[in-house]
Structures are given as structure tokens and as C-alpha cells.
Amino acid sequence: MSGVTVFGLCAAAAVGLGLYGLITNPQPLRKIIAFNLLGSGVFLLFGVIGRRGAAAGMGNDPVPQALVITGVVVAFSATALAIALVLRLFQTTGSTTLSNAAPSGTGSNPSGD
Amino acid sequence: MLPPAPAPDAATTTSGFLLVLSIVVPIAGVLLAFVLGGRYVRLVAHTIIPFGVAIAGAILLALPQNEGPLVYLLGGWPPPLGVALRADGPSAVMLATTAIVICAVAIYAAADFSVPAAETRAPFAFWILLLAVWGALNTIFLGGDLFTLYVALELLTFAAVPMVSLDGRAETLRSALRYLLFALLGSVFYLVGTALLYGLHGTLDIVLLSRRVGAEPAALVAAALMTTGLLAKSALFPLHLWLPPAHAGAPAAASAILSGLVVKGSFFIVVRLWFNVLPGLPGFAATQLLGALGAAAIVVGSMVALRQERLKLLIAYSTLAQIGYLFLMFPLAYDASGRLASGDALAGGLLQAVSHATAKAAMFMAVGSIYAMLGHDRITGLGGVARASPLNVLAFALGGIALMGVPLSGAYLAKDLLLRSANENGQWWWEIVLQAGGMFTAAYVVLVLAHALAASDKPIALAGPTSRIRDAAPLVLSLCSLLLGLVPLGLYLPIPSDMTSSLFGPGILSKLLLPVLGGVVIAILLSPWPHPLASSTSGKAIMTGATRVRRGSLALGYLVERTDEALSQWPAASMCLLLLALLLGALMCVAT
Q1: Alpha helices in B327-409 (DSSP H)
Q2: pTM score
Q3: Chain-chain contact of A88 with B173 (C-beta, under 8 angstroms)
Q4: In this model, does residue A112 exceed pLDDT 50?
Q5: Nearest C-alpha of chain A: how many angstroms from B546?
Q6: Residues of B numbered 543-572 whose beta carbons fall under 8 angstroms of chain A's beta carbons: which are they?
Q7: Residues A86 and A32: beta-carbon distance below 8 Å
Q8: Looking at residue B452, what is its pLDDT?
Q9: Residue A44 contacts B where some CB pair is shorter than 8 Å
Q10: Domain residue spans in chain B?
Q11: What distance lies between CA B341 and its chain's CA centroid?
Q12: Per-residue pLDDT tens digits for B451-505
């Protein structure tokens, strides 16, 4: 099994875990972490694709690396914005559930458990 | 027929600098507003907006004089090494629409978000976000490669999400967070698609990709993933969980931007994807699925809209139905042999997007004024509002009439174009959906107007002063939508020249009456609220006859509302997203 295949499988596993977490976890903070895992899987996929360019005789294809850097910045800003919203929600209501029929005054901490 | 494949860009065209300006100017406004601080932020926005409108106008004028699209190569590097900005007909039209809507919203919002008082940050945030949305949308319309589009799409989401929660209430914070998380899920799908396409062809430039992409399995998977991700961002049924609370909870000016413009950003990328990047894919079955989802969105969105108690929620759900209407253009673009053939469908879909952008923004703003005046927006409590605030009710009515597709309006021309391509391609089933869509739109407009025009027993207590200029903004915008059929858009969109003459042809009366009459029937059957006209004696006689039918249809409406609630749960909606990606991919794989 070549390195590219191993990394490709790792990327697929990270994407799968992230998707599962994003869909099933009810707490926003865990959803955000799952999104980051999902994003890391996709960036790894970009890395694998860049590595495949190396087979054609080049050292490494630089374009996917540039795309990953931009993607990391975008994912970082998305995380920052989401965290800011979660914090604000916690300050306003004292809980961070996403459903509108939230039980009031449960006073859970921002991680939701 | 589609135009022949465009040649790769050799160099920047003479007016190419306009494309850069149209992105740089709003972004410069954002930065300037941060530097100058809260006191000058509205001044900065109102200085930047005329420049932006002038640039959009200049692009509109420059495009017909140029053969082919306007191009700007960043740094002078041609693709695949560099990145290009391109403006073709559709992007020029969308740029102009965006400029007009932003301008109207800025005039409308001038009083709402004036110089900030001691502690509020909402005005500061609103004007910055307005400019940021504009910059992001312009990048989407001009971006020449898929990764630029990804970044612009994310910028658009990041600017749109805080607009939802400008007032900082817990309810709006929740809808903003849900919107952000679902949009992020969608954007990851899009990003995986771009990674696959880059791995296949070594470029993400739209023109280069359109020549290289064939029906390889990986390209089909990429197309399915990217389309699904964009559908999540455009809130096509059943991926709409975030839209109604987000659009209904935001302040009126922000709702107008979110509903009129932000949703069109991701829709425009879907259009780019199917018509410009992947015209070689076997998409007949997949686009039939897109159309079916659109039809479901029309039925569910309209039926739930008619059952809403609050006016803003009604309009938010009607946005859902209109988004479904937009996606009907995709199946109609394929002829019987399964090739992407018709320019009519493309022109019709984009015209519908333009008329929805202007009309829906006008309706949200008019409702915002009514809300501010009454202190509530319960539909049953609207009696007498037409006398108290005639301009706003007129703006709402004209916007609604424009959306129904009465002659002269952009929506009418769009419906005619779509009907024509349905007829040419032998897909008669979409003709039924198109006609029904017009009737459903008429239904909720008629419902609201019936309540607003009814006399009130008690005088209305005005909660706040009104301003003429503020009321004029939605009125002008809805007039734009209503008279769009007269604008010579043939220069920019592939509209056949005999279409505009049919605006004045015979049979116009039937085309006018059909949606309205159908709408009245639907409104009576599906709206659960006591009707102001039904209390008269003749009204009662009719109603007793129709009671049994009405009871049945109300039960149906209740069922649809429950289904919609079940689909609006997070796990259900995300599972729908995965299923949809699988289905789209499978349909295309089977077709090869």
C-alpha cells in the first residue's frame, strides 16, 4: 500500500467521523469541533492530490498547498464566528441548545454537558 | 443551442479594470468604516454605494461593446497559472440587480440604523455587513475559477450570518448559529467537489474545465457533491431548516438583503456549475430530481406560508417556494436527447431570480414598515392598515403582483420563457408546476391584501412616525420588478426577440386572470384564519357550500406543516443532505 493510499484512507476516515459528529451531536460546540475534523479530512485530501502531482516528475504540486492554506484560514474564521455566537448565546440564555423550545435555566456550561 | 466553447483568455480586456473595482470598492468601504469608527460608518456606506452603482452601470454599458465577456487577469497571469475575473451577460445582470437592491435597502435603512447611540453596535455592524455582502456577491458573479467562488461563498455566509442576529435576542442567535453550521456543512461538500475536480484536471478555471470535464465517475461525484452543498446554502426543500427562522427574525432591512440577494449567490454558482463548468455531463435525470425538489418546495413552502400567523414568517416561507421555482430552470434546459440545449431556460431562470430579488426585498421592507407602525405583524390584525399606510401596502401589493407573473413583469417573461422551453423539450409536467407556482404566489398575496384592505373597527394606534423617502424605497423596488419586462435584457441574456412583443398580444387577460382566480381559491381553501369578507351574508352562503372541501384541505395543510416541522430537525435535514448527494451521483452514474 503506497503512502498516497494510506493518507487518502485517513482523509476518508476523518471526513466520515466529522460528518457523523456534525449530524448526531446536539451540542453546538461539539458540532463545531466535528466541523473542524471534517475540514481537516478535506485538507488532507488536497494534500494527497498535491502529492499525486509528484508522480508526474514534479517535486510536489504547489497549487493544492495554496488552496489548503486559504481553506485553513476560511475554516478558522468560520470557527471563530461560530464560537462567538455560541458564547453570546450562553451569555444571553445560560444554555447553548439549538432547539427553540429550550428548557430555561438549565445552566449548562458552554460545552453542553 | 449553447454558444461554442469560449476561447481561453489571452489578455485583460480594455474595461477589465471595472471588474476589480466592483470588488475592491465595497471592501475598501468595509476597511474604511473600521478605521473611521462608528460615528462615520453610515456616511462611509452612503459614499461608497453611489460609486458601486456607477461601476455596475459601467459594466452593463461596456459589456455589449465588447465581443465576448469582459476579462481581467489578476497580475497578468493567464489561467491555469493565474486567476481570472470574468463578466458575461448573466453576471452583468446580477451585478446591476445587486447594486439596485443594495441602494434601495441603504435608503430604507438610513433611519433604522442611524448614528449609533451610546452602547448599541447594531448600526455599526449593519453598514459594514451590507458592504461586505455586496463585495462577496460581486466576487461570486465575477469569479472565474471554482476556488475563488468557494472563498466568495464563505465570505457571503460570514457576512450574512451576523445580519440575522443583529438585535442580539436569544432566538435570533440560535437561528444564526443554525444557519452558520448548516452552511458550513454545505461548503465542505462544495470544497470536496473542487478537490476532486482539481485532482482530475489540474485546474479550477471555469473555461478550461468546461473543455476538459467529461463523464468520468470522479467528475460525476464532484458534481453531485458540489450541487448538494450549494443546495444546502440556497435552502432548497428539504434543506431549508435554517431559512424561515433566520429570515423572519432579522431586522427588516437585513431580511430584504438575506432573502433578496444572499440566497441568489449560491443559486448563481449552481447555474455557473451546470451551464458553464459541466455542460458535458449526462444531467437529464439528475436535473429532473432538482426540478422535483423545486416543485416540492413550491407546494410545501406555499402551503406552510398560508398557515402562518405572522406576516414576516409568511414571506419567509414564500421565499422557500420561490427558491423552488428558480430550480425549475435546470430540467427545462435539457432537450429530449439529454443534452444541455436551451438558452430559453437559462434566461427564464435568471430573469426569475432578478424579479424575485427586487420584489421580495421590497416586500420585506414594506412589511418592516408595517410592523414598525403597528407594533405587531399578525395577519388577522392587519385590518385598516391600507388606510393608515397606503404606500407600504401598495409596495407589498405591487411586489406580490410582480411575483405572480402578470404581464409586463419580469416574472411573467420568465414564466413564458420556461413554459416555452418546457413545450419545446416535451416536458409537459413542468408546465403544470409553473402554472401552479404562479397560483400559489397569488394565493398568499391575495390573503394578505384581503386582510390589509379590510376596514378596521378601531383606529390604528401608530407606534412611530413615517417618512416619505423610507416608504418610497420599497415602492420603487417593486416597480422595478413589475416593469422588468420592458427593460431590453436581450443584450445580456439569450431572450428571443419575439418574446417582448408577446407582452402586448391577445390572450393577455386570461394570462392575467388565471393565476389570480386560482390564487383566490387556494387562499380560501388553505388558510386557517377567519376571513374578513366571509362574515358578510353572501360570503357565508359560499363558505357553507365549500366547508367540506375546505375542511379536507385544511387537514392536508396541517399534515404538510407537520412534515415540514419534522424535516426541519437537524438530523433529518443533514440526512436529507447526504441522501441527496448519493441520489444525484447515482442518477448521473446510471445515465452514463
Answers
A1: 329-332, 343-374, 385-388, 390-404
A2: 0.91
A3: yes
A4: no
A5: 37
A6: 570-571
A7: yes
A8: 82
A9: no
A10: 292-494+505-546
A11: 24
A12: 888 776 666 666 556 677 788 888 888 888 888 877 777 777 777 766 655 556 6
- A100 CB neighbours in chain B (<8 A) are 171, 174, 245
> Residue B245 and residue A85: Cβ atoms within 8 Å?
no
Banded model confidence at residue A104, pLDDT cuts 50, 70, 90: very low
The percentage of residues in chain B with a pLDDT greater than 70, rounded to a whole number, is 89
Q: How far apart (Å, rounded) are the C-alpha atoms in residues B194 and B196?
A: 5
Nearest residue of B to residue A22, measured between CA atoms: B185
With CA atoms as reference, report the closest residue to B29 among B44, B46, B50, B51. Answer: B44
- B204, closest residue in chain A (CA to CA): A63
Query: B15 to each of B12, B27, B71, B135, how far by Cα in Å?
Result: 8, 20, 8, 19
B171 touches A: beta carbon within 8 Å: yes
Of A98, A101, A104, B162, whose CA–CA distance to A112 is shortest? A98
ipTM of the complex: 0.88
Q: Give me chain B's average pLDDT, please.
A: 84
CA distance B592 to B587: 9
Q: Which residue has the higher pLDDT, B422 or B335?
A: B422
- Which range, of B201-210, B380-389, B394-403, averages the lowest pLDDT? B380-389
pLDDT at B2 over 50: no
Three-class secondary structure assignment of A38-102: HHHHHHHHHHHHHHHHHCCCCCCCHHHHHHHHHHHHHHHHHHHHHHHHHHHHHHHHCCCCCCCCC
Q: Can the peptide bond before residue B80 be classed as cis, meaning omega within 30 degrees of 0?
A: yes
B147 inside 8 A of chain A by CB: yes
Residue type, B238: P
Segment of A28-42, B30-44, B103-117, B413-427 carrying the highest mean pLDDT: A28-42
Q: Please name the residues between 79 and 98 in chain A that touch chain B, using a CB distance below 8 Å.
A: 81-82, 85-86, 88-89, 92-93, 98
Question: Parallel, antiparallel, or unpaired for β B84-87 and B70-73?
Answer: antiparallel
Distance from CA of B241 to the nearest CA of A (A): 11
Do the chains contact at B191 and A71, CB–CB below 8 Å?
yes
Question: What is the arithmetic mean of pLDDT over B568-581?
Answer: 89
3.30.465.10, 3.30.750.24, 1.10.287.3510, 3.30.420.40: which CATH number matches A3-93?
1.10.287.3510
Q: What is the mean pLDDT of residues B235-242?
A: 88
B336: three-class secondary structure by DSSP: coil
The distance of A1 to chain B (nearest Cα, Å) reads: 20
Peptide bond into B238 cis (omega under 30): yes
For residue B151, name the pLDDT band (cuts at 50, 70, 90): very high
What tens digit of pLDDT does each residue of B248-262 get?
888 888 999 999 899
**Amino acid (1-letter code) at residue B451:** H
Tell which of A17, A87, A92 to mutate to test the B interface (max B CBs under 10 Å): A92
C-alpha cell at B161: 450570518
Q: Is A24 on the interface with B (CB under 8 A)?
A: yes
Measured between CB atoms, does A100 come within 8 Å of chain B? yes
| pLDDT value, residue B4 | 45
The domain locations on chain A are 3-93
